Amino acid sequence: MLYLLLPDLTMKWVDVPATSTLKLARENDADLSQLPWEPSERRASITVVRWALRHGIPCTPGIVLHAPELSVVDVPNEIRKAHEGVKQSREKLAASAASHLIEKAMPASAEHGKKLDAEVDKSTENALLEAEEELQDALSKAPDENLINHWRRLGGAMPSPV
Q1: The pTM is what?
Q2: Percent helix, strand and coil across the chain, each rounded to 5?
Q3: Is the pLDDT at 54 greater than 90, yes or no?
């Protein structure tokens, strides 16, 4: 799958074999704007634009992005969101009558649960740090001057920092 980032920060997508399509486009200097792009519900963030200016492929209306590689931008927020859901579930369970009944039936189960929760928190923290490092690695590459100039010509908003 590929995304097409447009200057107004909207995105389009097309379901094609991304790696081989991009390889052929690079080898043949092809303009990928001719692919059958469909509107996407996804809207670009500043981080997506920053990533695109390093890893994208210019085409007439915007910048083409390799969707599987772009996931590096999403993973940290997805981890945070999932862990927030876990914490909310914990709070609901702790406040429920079922939690009190379980503790009566299995003494020390609440303490065991707290230990497991701490392990999950630590594992999540490690996964988040790893995902953030991977994103920072992707963004530490110098922006491509050709992509920056292309994006400016299209009227795309320049993130700060680029």
Answers
A1: 0.83
A2: 65, 15, 20
A3: yes
